[in-house]
Write a structure and sequence with these properties.
- This protein has helices at residues 3-15, 49-55, 66-75, 89-97, 105-111, 121-131, 147-150, 179-183, 205-217, 229-260, 265-285, 292-305, 316-327, and strands spanning 58-61, 82-85, 114-117, 140-143, 161-167, 193-201, 221-226.
- With 335 residues, the chain is of the alpha/beta class.
- It has a 7-stranded mixed sheet with strand order 2-1-3-4-5-6-7, sandwiched between helices.
- Helix 10 (229-260) runs antiparallel to helix 11.
Length: 335
C-alpha cells in the first residue's frame, strides 16, 4: 500500500483463532456470563510482570481524532512511551493543545510493541495492510471495534497478535456522585465503565497485555469481560446499534410526534425520560413488574411496529451484512 493511501486514510480520520472466554487470572473480568465485581481499574501497578507491560511502547494512530484524543488523554497519565501519529492539521493542533508531539508513521510503527488503530472502520483494512508488514515480530495490533476483524479485513501475519477492545460506556444505572463523573456520559474521563476484550490471534499471554492497555485507554474501568470477536460483533453493531440505537431514535421521534400534536416540549421530554428510566429499571433491574394495562399496551405496540422475525438480525450472515453496509453506506440503496 502506498504512503499516500496511508496518509489519506489517516487524514480522513483526523478530519472528522479466537481467545477463549473466561481465562482465570489477569485483571478482574466476567466468566461464564457472570460478572466478577471489582474496584474500578487504576494504573497503580503491583510490580512483577506488570512493570514490563507498563514499559511497552505504543503507537496511537489517529491520535488527534475524537477517539484518539480521549485515549491520548489517558495514556499520557501513565509511564508508557507513546508515539502519537497524526497528519491532519486539526488533529495535530488538538495534540499540541495537550502538550503532545507527533511521530512519523513509519518510525512509530517500526518501534512500537503495540499499535492502536484509533481510525475509522472504513480505513482499517487499507491502513492495516500497509502497517502490519512493518511491525516488529511479536508486536500487537489493537482495534477498537470488531467490524474489520469480523469481516476478515486484517492481513495475515502469524507473528503479530490481534486484539480487539471496546468500551461499554458508563451504565444508565450507576453510583457516580461527582459532577464530572455524572456528566461523563461517553466514558473515559471520570465515570466508571466496563469493557469487552477479545484476543483474535496470538499467544495466550498476550491477552493480559491487551487487556491492561485497554483498561488504561478506557479508564476508569470497573469490569473487563473476555469474549470472542464474533460475540463482540453480536453486541455491536447488532444489539447496541442496529437495534438499541434505532429504538432510541424511535423514542425521540415518538416524543417529537407528541409535541407536534400539541403537547408542550418540556412536558413531553420530562414525561418520556422519566418513563424510560423506570421502564429500563423494570426490564433490566427487575425493580417492579409492569402493570397489567401496560403489558397490554406493550403487546399492542409490538404487534403494530415489530416484525415477528426480527431476531434474524443476530444470524451471522445478517451481522456480516450489517457491518458491510456500515462500511459501505451506498449499499443501503440495494436493500
Amino acid at each position: 500500500m502506498s504512503q499516500l493511501c496511508l496518509r489519506s486514510a489517516l487524514r480522513r480520520q483526523g478530519a472528522g483463532a479466537q481467545g477463549r472466554p473466561g481465562r482465570a487470572g489477569g485483571l478482574f473480568r466476567a466468566r461464564a456470563g457472570r460478572p466478577i465485581e471489582a474496584d474500578f481499574y487504576t494504573t497503580t501497578w503491583d510490580g512483577g510482570g506488570t512493570n514490563t507491560m507498563r514499559t511497552q511502547s505504543v503507537a496511537l494512530l489517529g491520535a488527534g481524532g475524537k477517539m484518539g484524543c480521549r485515549i491520548a488523554d489517558n495514556l499520557k497519565k501513565g509511564d508508557r512511551r507513546v508515539h502519537y501519529v497524526e497528519i491532519g492539521e486539526r488533529g495535530i493542533a488538538r495534540l499540541a493543545e495537550r502538550g503532545l508531539r507527533t511521530t512519523p508513521l513509519e518510525e512509530a510503527v517500526a518501534e512500537a510493541d503495540i499499535v492502536v488503530l484509533a481510525i475509522p472502520d472504513v480505513a482499517i483494512g487499507d491502513v492495516s495492510a500497509g502497517i502490519v508488514p512493518k511491525m516488529k515480530s511479536g508486536a500487537m495490533l489493537v482495534a477498537l471495534d470488531p467490524a474489520a476483524a469480523y469481516l476478515g479485513k486484517l492481513p495475515e501475519r502469524a507473528d503479530v497478535a490481534y486484539f480487539v477492545a471496546h468500551p461499554c460506556h458508563p451504565p444508565v444505572f450507576n453510583d457516580e456522585t461527582t459532577p464530572e463523573a455524572k456528566s461523563d456520559l461517553f466514558g473515559g474521563v471520570a465515570a466508571k465503565q466496563a469493557i469487552v476484550c477479545a484476543l483474535m490471534q496470538g499467544p495466550e499471554s498476550d491477552y493480559e497485555v491487551g487487556e491492561r492497555l485497554a483498561a488504561e485507554m478506557y479508564a476508569p474501568v470497573m469490569r473487563s469481560h473476555r469474549i470472542t470477536v464474533e460475540q463482540m460483533a453480536i453486541l455491536e453493531p447488532t444489539m447496541a446499534e442496529t437495534i438499541g440505537a434505532m429504538m432510541a431514535t424511535l423514542l425521540g421521534e415518538a416524543m417529537d410526534e407528541a409535541v407536534r400534536r400539541g403537547v408542550p416540549y418540556e412536558a413531553a421530554k420530562d414525561f418520556m425520560l422519566g418513563h424510560i428510566n423506570i421502564e429500563l429499571a423494570v426490564v433490566f433491574n427487575r425493580v417492579n413488574p409492569f402493570s397489567d394495562a401496560c403489558l397490554v399496551a406493550i403487546d399492542y405496540g409490538r404487534r403494530a411496529m415489530i416484525k415477528e422475525n426480527w431476531k434474524q438480525l443476530f444470524r451471522p450472515e445478517s451481522i456480516r451484512e450489517q457491518i458491510d453496509v456500515m462500511l459501505h453506506p451506498e449499499k443501503m440503496q440495494k436493500l
